[in-house]
Amino acid sequence: MRGAVSFVGAGPGAADLITLRGAARIAEADLVLYTPSAVDPLWLREHTRADADLVDHARLGADELAELLRRLASRHHRAVRLVAGDPAHCPDLREQRELCARLGLDTEVVPGVSPVSAAAAATGNALVETAGADTVVLTEADFERVRELAADGRTVAVQAPAARAAELVEALLAAGLDPEVPVVVAHKVSWADETLLRTTVGELVAEVKRANLWRHALFLVGDALRQAKPRAGYAPRETETGKRWTSRSWRSTGTWSRRSFPEPDPVVAEPEPDDVDLAADAPVERAVDAAEPVRVESVPEVPVASRPDPVVKRPAVTKKQPARTARSGARRGAKK
């Protein structure tokens, strides 16, 4: 049996956000490497074995850490190294695993809840959304890198000292972000004394000073963090800039192009029969503008067999009938 090291995600800080697998590895370990900024030492002491060693690895140098792992391998013991948040965001994870492999130690990675996810959950927002932000970028306090990464349709998570908020704002504005883009500032999220601020790029510096924040914090920047959302299913397009849609009609505060929506041809009212001079032999013609194209509509010819019989009107009788008198009526009665 060889010794083993488990890299366990300690989550954002709250002990109950450590996974069940991570808690099981902590309870079984002979050695636990931790930092007070990642997990509460009092909770850790209550959930480890009585004979387990707890070591703050932030106080160890590289050589001291290597010697500690070498003794662990020789005794075939099991160790846990607690990583703040999620080990997937730990920049030296590969280096630590390669060191363990050279010393003959097996390694395991137990995922955890990242502070970025915890901060977004505390605001009730997702970092990406349909027809909105589709990318999440994580970076440290490299503001030149922030200037390259920040863009519309993207959520940026920046780990930086709150005292450098002015530099962050300068980088975001230089990237072309609007001052009204939302920003969430999270300090010790999920801890009992957490600080969570909702503000905008333009008001970020003033809000950070008002909250008296200057230590390391997490800044979430992006439109997905807005409290008020647009109508569900509506995604503005480039051709719809400046337009406002309502549920009753399609209205716009901008200007429509008549090429996209041509107006129908004007309807010319035909003259009523009473207005036509029937005595005139010449047909009535409508004046046609020379610029107006003449449309010729073809009428399909109806076969002779299917044509209806013409209606023949009999000429009116013009012979004057004799007046009927009482004598003629009496004469016809005598003949009968």
TrEMBL record:
Protein family (similarity comment): Belongs to the precorrin methyltransferase family.
Basic and acidic residues bias spans: 283-295
Domain of life per record: Bacteria
Protein name according to UniProt: Tetrapyrrole methylase domain-containing protein
Gene3D superfamilies: Cobalt-precorrin-4 Transmethylase, Domain 1 (3.40.1010.10), Methyltransferase, Cobalt-precorrin-4 Transmethylase, Domain 2 (3.30.950.10)
Record GO terms (molecular function): precorrin-4 C11-methyltransferase activity
Region (Disordered): 232-336
GO biological process: one example: cobalamin biosynthetic process
Record-linked PROSITE patterns: SUMT_1 (PS00839)
Annotated pathway: Cofactor biosynthesis; adenosylcobalamin biosynthesis
Cross-referenced SUPFAM superfamilies: Tetrapyrrole methylase
Biased composition (Low complexity): 247-259, 296-308
Keyword S-adenosyl-L-methionine: yes
Record-annotated Tetrapyrrole methylase domain positions: 5-204
Alphabetically ordered keywords of this record: Cobalamin biosynthesis, Methyltransferase, S-adenosyl-L-methionine, Transferase
Family annotation (PANTHER family): COBALT-PRECORRIN-4 C(11)-METHYLTRANSFERASE, SIROHEME SYNTHASE-RELATED
